[in-house]
Design goal:
This protein has 293 residues and is an all-alpha fold. Helix content is 74%, strand content 0%. Helix 6 runs parallel beside helix 10 (170-189), helix 10 runs antiparallel to helix 13 (235-248) and helix 13 (235-248) crosses helix 14.
């Protein structure tokens, strides 16, 4: 009798569980999934880089420099405490990272991962766990957001929109702000069975209004009270406030020149971190439920 007979007589589920514990006890599968995403992305890296580079250049030319010259000529620089380009640049870095992250957390998860290509089901048949798959997906989304923010920061620097070394902190801040929205959206993407315009609604009625009314182009203090209240609920506004503070020093540009207190900075960080952590935990849970069917 073969010495492998006892192992072969184990139930399939038992062998699968044992293999998971033996091969991948400490989460190395998350790294493997991230590496898979990186290798796959090489196919469209050049196209993606050009697309992400073109938008920053157009925005900065038309708004930062074109519109900015008009704003600066009409004493806008005095009211803002800086040039309009320097005011706009940190917000555009945060907004770009957020839009890229939301894009990665919608169609690729539902269509590529669960519905048509069913990539995640194939991964789940390996020693990878559902939590590791979810973690790898979110890590890749964060990487894409970081790459976009870094690329945008480089473009801004070429146009003279950087005032201090603190602008480098705009990249991690933009990534955190992006994940504060993308992670909860990933929960939705992992929950729906059929996309009936839900993703288009997210971009049209959530991302775009957030982009326009979160203090990106003008101080939130110019909005009516109800508009300011809505802006305070926006992850992009919190990320923009932090990015502007690190980029421009101690200028509080939401209501003119002034000092930003430590409680305000801490509040921004707590808000974004809480949304991100909740989104990460719920995404892992939804992946486990969806992949166990």
């Amino acid at each position: 009798m073969s010495t492998d007979a006892p192992a072969a007589s184990l139930p399939v589920a038992g062998r699968h569980t044992a293999t998971r514990q033996l091969v991948n006890p400490r989460g190395g599968g998350l790294t493997a999934l991230f590496e898979y995403s990186l290798i796959t992305a090489r196919r469209y890296f050049k196209v993606s880089a050009v697309a992400q580079l073109g938008a920053p250049v157009l925005y900065l030319l038309s708004l930062g420099i074109g519109l900015g010259s008009i704003v600066n000529a009409r004493s806008g620089a005095q009211s803002l405490g800086t040039s309009y380009l320097s005011f706009l640049a940190p917000a555009l870095i945060a907004a770009t990272a957020l839009q890229v992250a939301v894009g990665e957390s919608t169609y690729p998860i539902l269509f590529g991962g669960f519905k048509f290509q069913r990539i995640y089901f194939g991964m789940n048949a390996t020693p990878l766990t559902a939590q590791q798959i979810a973690g790898g997906v979110l890590a890749w989304i964060a990487t894409r957001a970081t790459f976009s923010a870094t690329l945008y920061l480089a473009v801004v620097a070429c146009f003279g929109g950087i005032r201090s070394p603190g602008a480098l902190l705009c990249v991690p801040i933009a990534t955190l702000g992006a994940m504060a929205l993308a992670a909860p959206i990933a929960v939705y993407s992992a929950s729906v069975e059929t996309e009936r315009g839900g993703f288009a609604a997210i971009f049209r009625f959530l991302v775009m209004p957030m982009f326009l009314f979160s203090g990106t182009f003008y101080p939130v203090s110019t909005l009516p009270e109800w508009g300011q209240a809505l802006a305070w609920l926006s992850p992009l506004w919190h990320a923009t406030e932090l990015a502007r503070w690190t980029s421009l020093g101690s200028l509080h540009l939401s209501s003119g020149v002034g000092q930003v207190g430590a409680p305000a900075l801490l509040g921004h960080l707590v808000f974004l971190t809480a949304l991100t952590v909740a989104g990460v935990l719920l995404t892992g849970w939804r992946f486990r439920v969806r992949l166990s069917r």
